[in-house]
Amino acid sequence: MNKFLLIIALLMSGCGTSTKYIESTNSKKYTSMGLDYHDIEKAANDSVKSLLESASVRNLTNTQTPKVLMISGVINDTMQTIDTDQLTRKITRDMRNSGKFVLTLAVGERADKGIALGRSVRDDDEFDQHTTIEKGTLKAPEYALSGKIVQKNSKVGSKQRTDYYFLLTLTNLKNGLVIWDDEVNIIKLGSNSSVAW
C-alpha cells in the first residue's frame, strides 16, 4: 500500500513540474507560428488607433451623443480555430472607452439571448407587468463592425512564412457607406515543422 501511495505522489509531483504560469509581458519568447494573445492584442490596438484617428470617424463623432455600434461579424479564414469574439470585444471595448461609441447586443453576430428572453414575459400573468420591459426601448444600431482574418502560408527556402491579414470595416447602416477600413498585417517566419495549420 505504501508503494502505491509513493508512486501516485511521484506521478503527481512529476505532472506539476511541466506546467508553469507565464506573465503576459514575458510570453512573447514562447511564440508560435499560430495566432496568439500578442497577435490579437496588436491587431486590435492598431485597428482602434487607426479608427479613432481617421478623419471620417472624428467627423461623425463630433456630437455629444455616442454612436450605437453593433458587431456584424468577423470571418475566420485561417487554418486555426480562433474565437473572433476576443478580437471584436477588445476593439469595441476600446471604442466605448473613447466615449464616441456604445455597443448594442440587441442585434448582430453576438446578440444577447437575454434581451429577447427578458421581453418574452410581457403579457404573462405570472409576472408583475410593472417590472416587465415596455416596447420601444431598444436602441437600433447606427454602425456595424465587420471583418475577416486571412492566413497565407509560403515556403521560403527551408523556412515557413505565415502571413496574417486582419481586415476590419466600419459601415454606416443608414446609407451602407464604409466610414473606415483598415488592414493589420502580422508576418511570422519559422521552421517547416512549425506550420500553423
Estimate percent helicity: 25-40%
The CATH topology comes to Rossmann fold
Structural classification: alpha/beta
What percentage of amino acids are in beta strands?
25-35%
Number of discrete helical segments: 5
CATH architectural grouping: 3-Layer(aba) Sandwich
CATH superfamily: ABC-type transport auxiliary lipoprotein component
Show unreliable segments.
Answer: none
CATH class descriptor name: Alpha Beta
Counted beta strands: 5
SSE string, helices as H and strands as E: HHHEHEHEEE
Give the domain tally.
1
Give the N-to-C terminal Cα separation: 47 Å
Mean pLDDT metric: 85
Write down the overall geometry. extended
Q: How are the strands ordered across the major sheet?
A: 2-1-3-4-5
What radius of gyration results from the CA coordinates? Answer: 23 Å
The largest sheet is: 5 strands, mixed
Pfam family, one: LpoB
Protein name: Penicillin-binding protein activator LpoB
InterPro entries: LpoB
Helix and strand arrangement:
Layout: H1 2-16, H2 37-53, H3 55-60, E1 67-77, H4 84-97, E2 101-103, H5 113-119, E3 143-156, E4 159-172, E5 178-191
Parallel strand pairs: 1-2, 1-3
Antiparallel strand pairs: 3-4, 4-5
Helix pairs in contact: 2-4
